[in-house]
Amino acid sequence: MIITQKKPAEELLAILSGVRKVALVGCGNCAAACQTGGEKELEEMKQFLEEQGFEVVGTVLPDECCHKMLVKRDLRALKDCGAEAIVGLACGDGVQTVADNIQLPVYPANNTMFLGQVERVGIFHEYCRMCGDCVLGETGGICPITKCAKSLVNGPCGGQKNGKCEVCPDNDCAWILIYNRLTAIGQTEKLGKTRKTKGYSGAYYPKHVNLREGKKA
Amino acid sequence: MSQLQKALESGRFAVTAEMAPPKGCDFSEQIEVAALLKDKVHGVNVTDMQSACLKASSLGLCIHLKQAGVEPILQITGRDRSRMAIMADVLSAASFGIDTVLALTGDHPVVGDCKDSKPVYDLDSVGILQMLSDMDETDCDCGGNPLSGGAPTLFKGASVTPVYDPLPLQINKLRQKVEAGARYIQTQGVFDRDSLCRFLEEVDRAGIRVPIMAGIIPLKSAGMARFMNENVPGIAVPEEMISRLDAAAAEGREKGVKGLPAQLGIEMAAEFIARIKDEKICPGVHIMAIGAERNVPAILEKAGVTI
User: Fold this and answer.
1) Does the residue A213 lie in any domain?
2) Same domain, A134 and A107
3) CB contact under 8 A, A154 and B176
4) Which of A120, A157, A203, B36 sits at 20 to 30 Å (Cα–Cα) from B249?
5) Domain interval for residue A188
């Protein structure tokens, strides 16, 4: 899931300076789960902006805000609403997808944090950095690109102390986790077989995936 | 040919020291220290923004040392430079006759003094070694393109942390470094024979064959030892040494004499080096004086080590 966090209210108000009439677009998928763009948050945002003197002239909640066709369809509800700007309560992908579909300024209400696991309601952890070249098969299903602060692919640096990372002592050393996991599943031989260098030619951006290539559209 | 390589291959007790470039563009202090180290050591590691604190570049001081007649060892971390930038620096170094390098992963910028700097880590220590080995083997750059005039011949090394839990993970990494082309190893600072020997036995048991130089940090005070124990990963100064440093400080206060703990630190370092040499525990030592490089000749003299 794409994990988002609300921007500080002052920052949002600063972005909206000079605007009076706004419409809100949320996201029924990730942002709803992150409590940054679901029904409740849209209602709260509407109330907050009205208290600040804005006129909220429309509210839309697409099932997912990163789906271009879906968002295009749902945004028809905002046609002729008179909004001068849109406030997007979604991830960066969702906000841009809204902008792709409407000729109005679109402003983000959230910061997009990471691709993460929902441990339980309201608790999220980063799990994948989307490097485009997955190494999990060699590392016991624990990602060194994400869970090691240096994304090391050949074992730990010298910076761990008591199993914790030098960068943030709240975090476990990824390579000790990997070592323990490989030991537990009987694959310690994989420790010596990690790739010496990981290439990044697959990590350029923006990337595209097209499953329709060669097929009829 | 690398002076360090010559020493290690000829079986002479190898000695290296370590220096940091200045935080600024005045290298006079470093050049002065270099004069003191000339003909006393087989090489001087030049740190690459150690502890992720900004300094002039390693390559810059390496060139100054070379010109002062001291053999530099170019430390290279993966923190700030991509594989292209690393290879470019190594090629420039080689043009100055700098042919001994040490590959490290590097401390993360957030533990240093320029926290907003973007961490690179395109390659880690193993990746740097492998890239340089591939360059040597193929005469090509990191993209597989031919290098004009071929690749320089380098003597490549790496570091290891003897006091580490879980140790098999550290031994495994050491093996990867050696397989990637490390021909000598310098250890993190070790302070007692037992820790060092325990580690060397494990290396031996793992069948890893590479010269391992013991890392020596001369202690300046009990406070420094305690600070390192608490804050520096892989450092374990025995309590007995800390007590001796405390006693030296108390004696100094009583007699009104300054510098007794540092003097004791020099003596303890010298004793340990002499023991490592006499008992043939390691084929050499790497002295990290952390700002007190002027003391290195005295330490070596007390240890009875000449090159």
Assistant:
1) no
2) no
3) yes
4) B36
5) 130-198
pLDDT tens sequence for chain B (307 residues): 899 999 999 999 999 999 999 999 999 999 999 999 999 999 999 999 999 999 999 999 999 999 999 999 999 999 999 999 999 999 999 999 999 999 999 999 999 999 999 999 999 999 999 999 999 999 999 999 999 999 999 999 999 999 999 999 999 999 999 999 999 999 999 999 999 999 999 999 999 999 999 999 999 999 999 999 998 989 999 999 999 999 999 999 999 999 999 999 999 999 999 999 999 999 999 999 999 999 999 999 999 999 9
Kindly report the CATH number assigned to the domain that includes residue A61: 3.40.50.2300
In CATH, B3-290 is 3.40.190.10: no
| B115 touches A: beta carbon within 8 Å | no
Measured on CA atoms in the order B51, B53, B54, B60, is the torsion positive or negative? Answer: negative
- Please tell me the pTM assigned to this model: 0.93
- Distances from the Cα of B204 to the Cαs of B10, B50, B198, B201, in angstroms? 21, 30, 10, 5
Q: Any CB–CB contact under 8 A between B71 and chain A?
A: no
Q: How far is A162 from chain B (nearest CA, A)?
A: 8
Domain limit, last residue, from A56, A84, A113? A113
Would you say residue A36 lies in a domain? yes
| Residue A28 half-sphere exposure toward CB, CA atoms < 13 A | 10
Quote the tokens at residue A11: 């920052």
Domains contained in chain A, number: 2
CB nearest B121 (choices: A152, A159, A194): A152
